[in-house]
Amino acid sequence: MPFYSQKVNKQIGLCDFQIIKCIGQGGFSRVYLVQKKDNGQMYALKLIEKGFIIENKKEIVVQNERNIMINILGLPFLLKVEFCFENKHFLGFIMEYCPGGELFYHLRKIKRMNEYMAKFYFVEICQGIQFLHQKNIIYRDIKPENILLDIEGHICIGDFGLSKPNMDKNQFAYSFCGSPEYMAPEMLLKVGHSYPVDYYCLGALLYELVTGLPPYYSHNTNEIYQRILNEELEFPSNIQISSDLKDLLQKLLSKHPFGRIGTIDGIKEILNHNWFKNININSIIQKKIQPPLKPNILGFNFDEEEFIKGEKQFKKKIIDCLQNKYQKEFPFIFKQFYFDASYKQNNMSSTPLLTKKQM
What we know:
cAMP-dependent protein kinase activity, 2 domains, AGC-kinase_C, Transferase(Phosphotransferase), domain 1, alpha+beta
């Protein structure tokens, strides 16, 4: 039993939600579509196993994710957190539900986007990344799987587990993280990285939107790394790509961060590129233009087959937790992990880790 207890009048927890189905998974977490029992509101619930967090010393990762989501609360194009909770077995994030599903799901269905469609979504994604950078956060994990579509089809960036907060412009981070296909050369070389890694990732994402595959793609991870570091950027001969777009991609995917577009003047510098000359960027940012993809909200915009593996075992752990049958209890990790966005007075600051003595 934990020595530390969290005191709030009425805390929202796992028992307040009806689990409907799994809609996502990560290395040590799963995301469920859930319904709040008292009002029927639909949410996405991200559940993280505490055992894995403690055994693998991932406390700081979860701490950062929680604090970042609270820090960016209310900003457009970024996933909104409604509640955070900690119990004896799980850490939970209750987030807004984006019924449009992952951009990855839609891209796989349509194979690739035309340039107008790619331009629309790229502008929205850039705006979300700009909001993060204005909050001194490097995202570090831009990929179609982490970009959701809301009920109208606008993008919503989620999953801040790899994001790096509190970064000065002249400061470098040294963690090796991200998805292989989207890693910038400086990340692979482990020479220190900063905000330009996000501009490289934006380039890799844009390349995938218009071609259907990331640049330097291979089934072999080491081969991907070698291609990113050593090969020149090439474009598929069977796909027509405008000269302006090729120029932008080459500048985003520059192997040298100091020569990469965006490094000098951020997202503004990218959106000033000639490729965007024939669209109204402000109208897109203000959501005055209807998105090219209109999700079928009566359908299910997630690939259910992706989440079958391990689901039975994870679901059993949830049931055991709710019925107090879990074999092992874990102490509280944080002094105040709980968060409720509906309260006007919240702990909006960071949540400190408990010391070993307090645990």
